[in-house]
Protein 1
Amino acid sequence: MPIQAFILDLDGVLTDTAEYHFRAWKRLADEEGVPFDRRANEELRGVSRRRSLELLLGQRVADYSEEQMEEMMDRKNGYYQSFLESITGDDLLPGARELIDGLKRRGLRIAIGSASKNTRIVLGKLGITEAFDGIADGHSVTRAKPAPDVFIHAAGQLGVPAVACVVVEDAASGVEAALTAGMLTVGIGPQERVGNAHFRYNSTEDTDLNEILGC
Ligand code: B16
Ligand code: MG
């Protein structure tokens, strides 16, 4: 079946909010007296907010009540959202606008498939909300990546079967989710992170639509 749609991850594919996530988690970790550094932050790429907190706390997760977990997620999100206030169209990653334009020129439908509950805020700040025919995010599904749900949800919004969708992802959890969804999968980043994808490029800018589409 010919490819009809692309589902694009947000953080790490269209914009790089990982630094803001890091600073927000770091502030929370410092306040809680939990060690946390940039290497540990890499483990949180594409991972839901709750799972990120669990990974950050490690064994200490057992020391906290559900209420305290909720409060910490809210606190981190408050720090993160204050960073988001400064985002503009200049924060699109190199090649992101060209990727969107290239897909539209080819008459392909496009959706967002992101784990983030801040997706609509980020898209609005970047000024690209209108470019998408569907938006599936952290509010759309219960099971986060690596479950395939967010991509299946996006395909449903577009009315396109999974086998006619391509997913572009920067996280190992997202690549796994896309493969489980039965979609052609493009990894953005190093081999050790996204090497299981059908195609891999070092950056969004390097993405070759002709190669992916077999033109
Ligand atoms: P939020 P993506 C993911 O977005 C981020 O990569 C990950 O670091 C973050 O924890 C997750 O969203 C949840 O974000 O706290 O805003 O709901 O890469 O799936 O676009
Ligand atoms: Mg991502």
Protein 2
Amino acid sequence: MPGRHHLFVPGPTNIPDRILRAMLRASEDHRSVIFPALVEPLLADSCRLFGTERGRVAIFPASGTGGWEVALTNTLRPGSTVLLPCAGQFATLWGEMATRLGFEVTTIAGINWGDAPDPAAIEDALRDDPSGRIAAVLIVHNETSTGVTADLPAIRRAIDAAAHPALFFSDGVSAVASLEYRHDAWGVDVAITGSQKGLMLPAGLALVACSPRALAELDCGGARGYFDLRPMLAQNATGYFPYTPPIPMLYGLQESLAMLFEEGLDQVAARHRRLAEGVRAAAATWQLPICCADPRAASDTVTTVMTPTGCDAAALIAHAFTRYQLSLGAGLGPLAGKAFRIGHVGDLNEGMVLGALALTEMAMRDQRLAIEPGSGVAAAQQRWLAAA
Ligand code: PLP
């Protein structure tokens, strides 16, 4: 079909032409004397992205899942216990990885998909652990399956209130470079992100930010191979990598960070908030509930829209793709067939989101949902006009 495809999955996201051009590079020598001129500013800019001056950021050739492994294996003693409030697909997968790596995973009872991690419950769980068995609290900052954002500062306060020594990990795969994130100020010890969402790159880079406390744990005794932070940080300190880095991706990251800083990280977060509010206004007008239980926790990068009984969300998504060139995110895990996700993350503006909402409406009508064409589009427009 002619025209551009409308990519509204919550990652991978659209790659701006500037970044595509920046990545179109001939191969070069990654051990040359000039290579550090690329790497050193890139690492400094990555620290700025995470909001860390005290910590360090490493860039691994991996998707976000690799970042999970970096976080777990580099800072926790083998067999340690981690606390993981689990209310979504990515928390589930992170927990499963931790189990496979030999860690003990403790979850919090009574939390449902669509709920945000409850700081009070985390504080209680830590108070119930006077011997300090829990080595880390694992939080998915933005649960991409349910469209729920965790309150990281409140969770930091909960850990402090319990006076518990656990490290604080954040999975920022669908948060960093799109939602507000302040590594130092929020007292996070290890945060990860992937390149294919807010950073507007292909998948392939996992960025991992470590606090001084996390860095002090690198000799924790965990078995590591490719994802060992120690040789990575040692080589990075001289502007190199311990193995061949994906050089075009590094140029892409350089351009991505330049674009984000030109717009301003606060403005990037405000734009994501604005676009999300339009999508949420559309969903409300369609009278389709969103998965996120507490409106204050609704994600600004992805909205998980529940479809009514009798509507197969998977069929709707397939129809939107083949008939309208619109990619919507699938419902994951128990939400499969019951929800679709509208990703509003990365290189997007109001016009693009309105296009996606209009096509979603048409696809829903084709699937016999009682949706008034244009109603969600108008609701988003009115939301934005009122805010302006
Ligand atoms: N964590 C979150 C919150 C995610 O959304 C994703 C992927 O969408 C991942 C982790 C896994 O990242 P990847 O698919 O890049 O390995």
